[in-house]
């Protein structure tokens, strides 16, 4: 049977409050492991405060053509949350004035928002330095109307960041669904063909690797090397950089951890791998995340847990960068996912 | 105290052996850490050797640890199983090569 979202299944874990409760009980309540707040206090990082804003990340909606087993958004075809043009207008007002140098569009599959192209066209006029679209690749082949996306991305000099959990079929399909690997390969070849990641071209194509199971990513550089060799040899595919991202224990990945009885070991592994150097560069210290309905969060994960920014300003309609920069970042035990080992962010390792 | 000899959660407590002998424990973990760094052999190659040896010495903690380590390094299950076979082949070879001793003794004792 095809996987459905937690929300569709009315699973207890579809409620962010229940997830947060789970993450604060058990091994944490019984003091086997320290709360994130206490752990960062030990290394002098509490309270966690933002630094200079660099990235504005906008979530265009939770609808997706895929239902990945590890998805922290609980995205899928059955999710109907989509950003309206009215909210997009509010975002554009901010994009025109923000001090951030990077605009990062995500989802769901952001391309499924009916106003996606209009929004990209408008946003690209603002002349932001790095304009990222997080594409799941298969969307390009999902329907005829998406086949020209590589050309569209090229036209607007979009920096494409794509998920590809592994360079082999079996692991990719297990995590993301049957047939995903072959479609992803085809989409990558299409992107290469229009100039992405080609010598002498400015068009950037990065890949995201995240472990297909209850283990952490290791050395990003070594993994990038493995991916490059394998994808070139097997499929003649080129890409620029590989971002290794740790799966955070929320949403469908949390469901998987609990069901497979890996939750405790995984949390132990995250806490054991705590790296203070990663805390210094956490993405929540240089990012603002905007949800499909315009609310502001410290990161995409906090968005999914409905932990809004701790600031007078909570919505894009009342956006004020100075006020926001003065906030305290909202944390819980899921944050251990970003501080483990070399650290993890939407841009990969941070330490 | 657990009623079974092996408890998977004991692996997490491995570091505690240092508490009862700080100097030796520390020396061991320093050595252990150094061994698995990149060197003339890559950390990936060493991980596979460790997995093979884990099977030969039949250490369930080590098998758990180096299966996970292999997954983290992107080592495939085919590579892992070949490593286990390499260990098993040496182990069975070590048994079988004693067959020569048996043959020698047999011949010596027989008229």
UniProtKB/TrEMBL annotation, chain A:
SUPFAM superfamilies: Radical SAM enzymes
Signal sequence, renumbered to the chain: none
Cofactors that this protein relies on: [4Fe-4S] cluster
Gene Ontology MF terms: catalytic activity; iron-sulfur cluster binding; metal ion binding
Family annotation (InterPro entries): Aldolase_TIM, ArsS-like_C, rSAM, rSAM_ArsS-like, rSAM_sf
Record carries keyword Metal-binding: yes
Domain Radical SAM core: start-end pairs: 58-196
Annotated keywords: Iron, Iron-sulfur, Metal-binding, S-adenosyl-L-methionine
Record domain Arsenosugar biosynthesis radical SAM protein ArsS-like C-terminal: where: 216-349
A UniProt-annotated Pfam family: DUF3641
NCBIfam families membership: rSAM_SeCys
Name this protein carries in UniProt: Arsenosugar biosynthesis radical SAM protein ArsS
Automatic annotation (TrEMBL), chain B:
Domain Carboxymuconolactone decarboxylase-like: 23-101
Oxidoreductase recorded as keyword: yes
InterPro entries associated with the record: AhpD-like (IPR029032), AhpD_core (IPR004675), AlkhydPrxdase/COmuclacdeCOase (IPR026445), CMD-like (IPR003779)
Any Pfam family matching the protein: CMD
Keywords: Oxidoreductase, Peroxidase
Single GO molecular function: peroxiredoxin activity
PANTHER family cross-referenced by the UniProt entry: ALKYL HYDROPEROXIDE REDUCTASE AHPD, BLR3452 PROTEIN
Full protein name: Arsenosugar biosynthesis-associated peroxidase-like protein
Annotated source species: Christiangramia oceanisediminis
